[in-house]
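User: I'm writing a short report section on ligand binding and want a predicted complex to refer to. Could you take this sequence and aspartic acid and write out the structure as tokens? A short remark afterwards would be nice.
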Amino acid sequence: MQSVEKAAGGRVVILGCGGTIAGRAESDQDTVGYRAAEIGVDVLVAAVPALRALPLEAEQVAQVDSKDMTPAIWQQLAARVAFHLARPEVAGVVVTHGTDTLEETAYFLHRVLAPSKPLVLTAAMRPATALMADGPQNLLDAVTLARHPGARGVLAVIGGEVYPGGELRKVHSRRLRAFSAGDAGPLGRIDDGRFERWRDWPAGVGLGLPAIAAAAAKWPRVEIVTNHAGADGRIVDALLAQGGVDAIVFAGTGNGTLALGLEAAALRAVAAGVPVLRASRCGWGPVLGGNAALPAAGALSVAQARVELLLRCLISAQGDRTG
Ligand code: ASP
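Assistant: Sure. The structure tokens for the complex follow:
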């Protein structure tokens, strides 16, 4: 069996962003009433004996409960990731993060950087102080993957399962294996330091850091509106009347369907120049086909579709400035 020490690979930089993996509770029995984002990334690394012999660096980029993640932190994180991945001696970067918005951060980094080296996100469902904390094993697995020969792209590893970052979805509020990559399934898994791959590495061309540089001043405002029994679209009209909404994601029912009143309001938004995407409030499955005026989000989750529109708004704003 291949151990971490035997695995090929060079230096790994671990960037801490907070989350439950860095969470602390008063009691080792408490996996609910803890405070996320309390423990520094250097302490998390030091707590894993198998990491001690490896060439690692740790850097704290942020310290937040990921429910409070912001585009400004994404921008800062993307810059630090790009900086470290450009260093020839660095084999890969690991990011420790909360689970709640992990799919958004992963999708953002995938679309902006699409790195040719591995960028591995990991997280935990139990705080670091829990009797059976899952963070240390997840961190060890993430470093193993970041040093794996040929690994590339944005990846996530949790509970031994490896996912393409761009396809990641949090699908359970409590389970240790709380994630999925939809119908295509995980990219592979890690058992006792041995990685088995079932799918291709993530592909794609990143938009690049300059594409998000101008956003520091003002990030676009992209709202999410959910379809439900009795949805009448007045919330969309309120957004349009208020002004300042740059794009809207519709969390449709089933295959992205909208109640007649909400659909009419969505079309009014499009007519007013507000781009939209229709995703699904189902936890699993794509949105396909349908109305060209109200485009489908495909395989993107509601939260990822929001990131996609955020990036599209930035790019079109840049086009307006340079065009
Ligand atoms: N609220 C936490 C976070 O997302 C949950 C977790 O990490 O599991 O930071």
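A remark for your report: The CA atoms of residues 155 and 164 lie 5 Å apart. Residues 19-20, 36, 65-67, 98-100, 123, 125 surround aspartic acid (CB under 6 Å).
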